[in-house]
Design brief:
mainly alpha; Helix Hairpins; 2 domains
Length: 214
Amino acid sequence: MIPQSLGKNVIPRLLIFISGLVVLSGCATLGKDECLNADWRTIGYEDGAQGYLASRISSHRKDCAKHGITPDFYRYEEGRLEGLREYCTPQKGYNLGKSGRQYNSVCPGDLESVFLKGYYHGKSVHDAQMVIKSQQVDLNKMHEELRTIEKDLHDYEEELVHDDIGPRRRKKLLEEFKILTEKRRNIIDAIAHQEALLETSKLNLQQLISQHSY
């Protein structure tokens, strides 16, 4: 029997998702023995503690239907709501945001604000890490471009010292050498600027992480 304190909230929500359950794709959530010996309140609690939506039971229903077992929706949801109280903490919110995963609005109203505080802090750390990753990729490309330019400059220098080089070819090489030299100067300046941006981003990330106190 559902406790009176939970009944008012549980029954309306159950009626909504029982009538519109969506069968989820993917691996089986429960095996035959688990279905036959299921404690649906415990299963609900475990799912809630991992932050699963109420529609998670549709996967259990699909798996257990193969063995002639029907989940106890009321017991499952009662357990899931209790499990969510373990899940909906600032620390779990921080971990979720830092991992880059999306929050699916599973936390009860009285816990959601503290969960979201941790979540958005973690998300800011994740976003800062993504900025650093992107900046590092750009910096690596700049260094690769610089290496290519310096190799071409070296090859032009090698050819320019040959005695048998014709005047037209020498003129062409000198023009290309001048262009590449300017390009080399520009890419060196760009690298210095990018390194400064990257260092600033790393300091920002360290500050964000140091604010974590969960």
